[in-house]
Amino acid sequence: MAYTFSNSFVLAFTTLSFLLVSTSVSTTTTTTRSMSNNIEGLSYNFYSNTCPNAEIIIKNVVSQKLKEALVTAAGALRIFFHDCFVEGCDASVLIASSSTNKAERDADINLSLPGDGYDVFFRAKRALELQCPGVVSCADVMAIVTRDLVNLMGGPRWEVLKGRRDGLISKASRVEGNLPQVNQTMSQLISLFKYKGLSTLDMVALSGAHTLGFSHCKEFISRIYGYNTTCDIDPTMNKGFALQLRATCPIKSMDPNVVAFNDVTSPFTFDNAYYLNLQKGFGLLATDQQLFLHPETRSYVNDMVEDQQIFFSYFVAAMIKLSQIGVKTGSDGEIRHDCGTFNA
Ligand code: HEM
Ligand SMILES: *[C@@H]1O[C@H](CO)[C@@H](O)[C@H](O)[C@H]1NC(C)=O
Ligand SMILES: *[C@@H]1O[C@H](CO)[C@@H](O)[C@H](O)[C@H]1NC(C)=O
Ligand SMILES: CC(=O)N[C@H]1CO[C@H](CO)[C@@H](O)[C@@H]1O
To answer: Which stretch is the leader sequence (predicted)?
Structure first.
């Protein structure tokens, strides 16, 4: 249940990824298209004349990348979320720092965002540039790549509205306060998501993204050692689970690179097991577990457990809202040639 990102880890899962990817594709054909709240300037057929094969080109890159590194899906999904919460969904998170600017992706909180997640966006854009140079924005690439990854991991599929433009600002100093943290209370998190235009239900559904990926020990360490003066371990955490996590993250010789699965039961499948875990005290982060403990969110967690299709439809609706936060359209921003740098 714990892995460091060693080569053997990646190799071990490369073989498994073929199985997972091929079985999940055939079982998930749900397509959802939201007709409401669409932002002016975004459309489904935005590239039909200028780059008709854009989504096919992207899909091929995504499938290939996932075969090489299954961890890509979680990494990219988290990066997309961070992009949208800081300056809007404008690919500002992909900009590399320069000697004069510490970019968004190098904010302290971003230190844990993994390389494979970034790589899939860059690769998809490079493939598009060969066929339709200067046409498809990095912001749209991010929205489409993320959709494909969720679907390939066994999750739902939805149509992506296109027409986003790439942002002209990427500053590490503008990250703080815009991203959720594990030590925040449910009411702080509800306010943050509300400020971004997302409801409490959207927040619960999007947290289902933690059905994939990992967290570093430091993100949950305070739950398993010296929790408070009366309990050494957070009593809302399943005891056996807490002890396993202690073995993963020994207090004396904690390796900063060690991680634990966010969804301990099915870490490489996009499913509703994350919510079932919360009912059993298997939530990894304090904020995960709080979703089941807090009266305003508990019933939503129960709904997600009840029916995976309900989770999928709430997740899709929330992803569509997330992917429209602060988008630039028309003549705002630019269409970057290289996602990592502003056009000259
Ligand atoms: C509700 C508040 C949230 C909090 C407090 C939170 C916090 C975190 C933390 C601390 C990690 C572990 C990072 C690390 O140690 O490397 C993580 C991982 C992750 N988060 Fe969240 N998150 C939240 C919501 C979301 C949302 C809305 C999404 C996407 C829609 C998301 C997607 C992910 C994914 C996919 C991972 C795994 C990343 C990987 O394995 O590379 N999270 N989150
Ligand atoms: C949460 O953690 C961050 C960074 O680890 C810290 O700066 C902040 O003060 C903490 N917030 C609360 C409410 O404890
Ligand atoms: C420790 O945490 C538990 C569970 O949250 C709580 O019931 C208890 O009152 C806390 N103890 C102290 C001293 O805060
Ligand atoms: C300062 C720092 O190390 N920032 C890192 C943020 O995450 C990206 C992606 O892994 C790294 O490339 C940066 O170096």
So the answer is: 1-27
- Nearest Cα residue to atom 9 of ligand 3: 230
Closest ligand 2 atom number to CA of residue 188: 13
C-alpha span between 262 and 32 (Å, rounded): 26
For domain 186-319, give the fold. Peroxidase; domain 2 (1.10.420)
Starting from the CA of residue 229, give the closest ligand: 3
Tens-of-pLDDT digits for all 344 residues of the chain? 444 433 323 223 333 332 233 333 333 334 444 444 578 899 999 999 999 999 999 999 999 999 999 999 999 999 999 999 999 999 999 999 999 999 998 886 656 677 899 999 999 999 999 999 999 999 999 999 999 999 999 999 999 999 999 999 999 999 999 999 999 999 999 999 999 999 999 999 999 999 999 999 999 999 999 999 999 999 999 999 999 999 999 999 888 889 999 999 999 999 999 999 999 999 999 999 999 999 999 999 999 999 999 999 999 999 999 999 999 999 999 999 999 999 98
229 in contact with ligand 3, CB cutoff 6 A? yes
User: Which residue among 78, 89, 269, 300 has the greatest number of ligand 1 atoms within 8 angstroms of its CB, and so is best to mutate?
Assistant: 78
* Structural domain 26-179, CATH architecture: Orthogonal Bundle (1.10)
**Dihedral (CA of 270, 276, 278, 280) sign:** negative
Check if 82 is active-site.
yes
Whether residue 108 is annotated as binding a ligand: the answer is no
Check whether 4 is labelled as a binding-site residue. no
Structure pTM? 0.89
Q: Is residue 211 marked as binding? A: yes
Report, in this order, helix, strand and coil percent for the chain, each rounded to 5: 50, 5, 45
Task: List the alpha helices (DSSP H) in the chain.
Answer: 7-27, 54-68, 72-85, 115-131, 138-152, 186-195, 200-207, 221-224, 239-248, 273-279, 286-293, 298-306, 308-322
Which residues make up the CATH 1.10.520.10 domain(s) of the chain?
26-179
Residue 181 CB–ligand 2 contact under 6 Å: yes
